[in-house]
Amino acid sequence: MSNIEIIDQETSVIMPFYDQPQVQIDEIPVGPGIPLGIERVSNPELGIAGAYGAWGMSFDNQAVLEFVEQRIGHPLDEESRLNLASLGFVNRHHIPELTPQEDLELEVAVGARFVREAAYANGWEPGEVDAVLLGTTGPVADDYTERVAHEAGIPESALKVSIHKACDSSVGALHLALNPNLEFLGSIGRGLAERLAGKKVLVGGIEGLSRLLRWTRDTNALQLFGNGAGVIGMIPGRTIRFLVGKAYEAFDEKGVLALHMYYPYTGRSSAGGSMIEVTQAGQNHIRVAGFMKEPANDHDSVDMAGPMGMVKLFVRNGVGVVSDVYHTYRRRMEELGTSQKSIITTIAHHANFRINTLKSIQLEKEGIHLSIPWILSEFGNVSAASNMIAFLRKLPGLKPDDHVLFDGFGAGTYYDVLVVSIGES
Q: Is the pLDDT reported for residue 26 higher than 80?
């Protein structure tokens, strides 16, 4: 039996995110006015906190079908209508069509708000932050991370790192900040984890996917994806400590999940033939960009094979990477004389419920029993934001020296899996 925890799978009792009492509602004065909901989360015992939420109008599963039909200009046939509840989703958030300048203004304002709120949740002023690492699938501007940091009041001298590895981007960012032994970084990114050790660091995923969906007629993507953001604050080596991890690439040659690369990518392979390109994007700005199989139609932002196609794409390789990291973790615990320690929870990307369930079943067949909570039903697939939101939702119940596995994966195909120990050291 799967160890997936169906925490909020009973759709009849799930309250829309904006209606939840702990969520602060505001409006961004762009276009007709864009609603924004943010929740701050902190665990003072661990010294970790952050903020997460969404922006745009909230669409339930029926309303999102009507939204898609309006977008494509005709009714969806039965074959095209996804059973969204069975995929783990009951809401997502979308914005109206805006001008390019309004899109930029909105997403910079939203990003800055999440970064500031995450800093405040940790008891930091934005001016105290030493680094900001943001994962974004399709940034609204090449210098999005710099713009957000500036708007949030982060010092110009702070390090900014933009990570573009689709849904894996935020876990990729966390991995960069913690693991000193990643091989693809080259001379620009080498020593990044050592540089950030002991510093006040914000890591997150900010995904304005509603904007990207304007340039697709892929009905699967239109039904599944929505806006979302999650940003956590940590002090690498002190409040979150790296134990083991692995980054893995398996090029999606068939383009099962094809994405347009809305970010600079020269096409030069990194050391060891990696598809990841690390460049100096500004004086204090590093860009980590992954190569994507792009849609055949240059005007499409995304082209996906459907939920079962995603299962085939992500499960086989994903199970292999998680299994490798798990066994490395067990050996590491034996070496440290702490074989009694175990992974308390898994923070997995919420691509869809079927993927996570099948991964759990396959891992159990290999004797690996991991708790994998499903806790993002009110957001839809929010790509790189999902792992950070899931972590923040689990954060209040975690204890010092708990071991947590992060399972990140996304189009490309990219995987970042790592185990960390949390709490003030």
A: yes
Nearest to 28 by CA among 128, 106, 89: 106
In whole angstroms, give the CA distance from residue 367 to residue 300: 42
Q: 229: which residues sit within 8 A by CB, 6+ positions away? A: 52, 53, 54, 55, 110, 111, 114, 204, 205, 206, 207, 382, 385, 388, 389
Question: What is the span of the domain harbouring residue 200?
Answer: 4-422
Q: What are the φ and ψ backbone dihedral angles of 158, each rounded to 5 degrees?
A: -65, 145
Burial classification of residue 78, based on how many CB atoms lie within 10 Å of its CB (0-12 exposed, 13-18 middle, 19 or more buried)? exposed
Q: Count CA atoms within 13 Å of residue 98 on its CB side.
A: 23
Angle at which helices 353-365 and 307-335 pack, to 10 degrees?
40
The DSSP symbol for 90 reads S
pLDDT at 252 over 50: yes
Report the pLDDT averaged over residues 108-132.
98
Is 34 in contact with 62 (CB distance < 8 Å)? no
- Structural domains in the chain (count): 1
Q: Mind listing the pLDDT tens digit for each residue in 10-21?
A: 444 689 999 999
Q: Give the pLDDT of residue 271.
A: 56
Q: What is the CATH number of the domain that holds 298?
A: 3.40.47.10
Q: β-strands 159-164, 131-135: how paired?
A: parallel
Distance CA 35, CA 29 (A): 9
Cα–Cα dist 326/339, whole Å: 13
Report the pLDDT value the prediction gives residue 405, as an integer from 0 to 100: 98
How many residues make up the chain in this entry? Answer: 425
Nearest to 41 by CA among 15, 23, 16, 20: 23
Question: Tokens at residue 194, please?
Answer: 């050592």
Q: How many helices (H) and strands (E) does the chain have?
A: 11, 19
pLDDT at residue 9 tops 60: no
Q: What is the pLDDT of residues 253-299, one digit of tens each?
A: 888 999 999 999 988 655 568 899 999 999 999 999 999 999 998 88
Dihedrals phi, psi of 405, to nearest 5 degrees: -100, 130
d(CA 225, CA 209): 7
Q: What is the DSSP letter of 165?
A: B
Cα dihedral 143, 145, 147, 153 sign: negative
Give the separation between CA 189 and CA 247, rounded to whole angstroms.
15
Task: Using the predicted structure, report yes or no on whether residue 41 has a pLDDT greater than 80.
Answer: yes
